[in-house]
UniProtKB/TrEMBL annotation:
Pathway this chain belongs to: Protein modification; protein ubiquitination
Lineage: Eukaryota, Metazoa, Chordata, Craniata, Vertebrata
Subunit composition and interactions: Interacts with CUL5 and RNF7.
Organism: Callorhinchus milii (Ghost shark)
Single GO biological process annotation from the record: protein ubiquitination
Domain SOCS box: 284-332
Gene name in the database record: LOC103184775
Keyword field: ANK repeat, Repeat, Ubl conjugation pathway
Family: Belongs to the ankyrin SOCS box (ASB) family.
Cited function: Probable substrate-recognition component of a SCF-like ECS (Elongin-Cullin-SOCS-box protein) E3 ubiquitin-protein ligase complex which mediates the ubiquitination and subsequent proteasomal degradation of target proteins.
Residue windows of the ANK repeats: 89-118, 152-184, 194-226
Protein name as it appears in the record: Ankyrin repeat and SOCS box protein 12
Length: 332
């Protein structure tokens, strides 16, 4: 049977089409350039003033930055975003690099202290992540939100607790950061939200100073065992005591949780040959066998009441002898 020319042409065309689909497309340099341009900020990135501001901050030249911002044509771009990857403002760049003097100059000329980048991270979050306590302190004094942005899954205090940055953590807590904050995991991710508090991170990564500081500022020692909505979604409660035992934290962690009123009957205890963990279990077993002394019970109750009423800072205003105030602050 003779095949018609038109059918042959159609078959060849179909075959060629299939081959074209299977063959990887070749991209010109122009196409690649267009794709990369999408990662750059769309507004004013080619503006000379923005580039000069960013370069000056990057070089930590605070004197030149002061001269530039004394001119109105530069001030109007002080909150403009630029750069590759994660475009940010000059303030974010200063916070990331730890250039305190430039950061202070930018704040002086009206830089937006809580400006967001494309990841919904504030300059404060960037300073915390980059471990620059001086910049953290300056931003907090300028009015930065210690909790970061509500649109970001993480927060400054979670980052500081995870990294063991006790100095930064103290600054955040002093300026009112939420001590029991959780990462903003999806509602179905119950296990993630159950084990995501600052106290959890401090125990898992064994940052004892951060762990103790969080408890002093009112962290709930049973942080994921009080919310009914959360408890009903998880199969097994992951208490702070259980986390400390599981990750081999020293006996000092267990004793701290007991002193701050953790529910000592929640974790399930099991025999363990690990010496460190065995000591921790022994402390917990001893606490279960002996009731708390009255003065310890009173301290736990008073701290809880103060936290609900006026905050733990009000301990200093109590009309009691200094020795009792120190006891309430666990300084004895």
């Amino acid at each position: 049977m003779r095949t018609s020319p038109s059918y042959c042409c159609l078959a060849n065309h179909s075959s060629n089409t299939r081959m074209d689909i299977m063959r990887p497309a070749r991209m010109s340099l122009v196409d690649i350039g267009k794709i990369f341009s999408m990662f750059q900020p769309r507004n004013d990135d080619d503006n000379g003033e923005i580039k000069q501001l960013s370069q000056t901050v990057s070089k930590d030249n605070d004197q030149l930055l002061e001269e530039l911002l004394s001119q109105e044509r530069y001030v109007q771009f002080i909150n403009s975003r630029s750069g590759w990857g994660v475009p940010g403002t000059p303030l974010r760049l200063a916070a990331a690099k730890g250039h305190l003097r430039c950061l202070e100059v930018l704040l002086k000329y009206g830089a937006e202290v809580d400006s967001l980048d494309v990841k919904a991270q504030t300059p404060l979050f960037t300073a915390v992540s980059s471990r620059h306590p001086c910049c953290v302190r300056a931003l907090l004094r300028a009015g930065a939100n210690p909790n970061g942005s509500i649109h970001n899954n993480c927060s400054p205090i979670l980052t500081a607790a995870r990294e063991g940055e006790v100095e930064i953590l103290r600054e955040l807590l002093e300026h009112g950061a939420e001590v029991n904050v959780r990462s903003k995991a999806q509602r179905w991710a119950s296990n993630a939200s159950a084990g995501s508090g600052p106290l959890y991170f401090a125990s898992v990564y064994k940052h004892y100073d951060c762990f103790r500081l969080l408890l002093l500022y009112g962290a709930d020692p049973d942080f994921n065992c009080r919310e009914k909505r959360l408890v009903t979604r998880i199969k097994r409660r992951k208490t702070a005591l259980e986390m400390c035992l599981r990750y081999g934290c020293g006996p000092e962690y267990i004793q701290l949780l007991i002193d701050f009123g953790a529910n000592i009957y929640l974790p399930v205890l099991s025999a363990d040959k690990n010496t460190q963990r065995k000591k921790a279990v022994q402390i917990l077993m001893r606490a279960r066998a002996q009731p708390r002394c009255l003065i310890s019970q009173a301290r736990i109750v008073i701290r809880r009441c103060l936290k609900l009423a006026s905050g733990l800072r009000s301990i200093e205003q109590l009309d009691v002898p200094p020795i009792l105030r120190n006891y309430l602050k666990h300084q004895t």
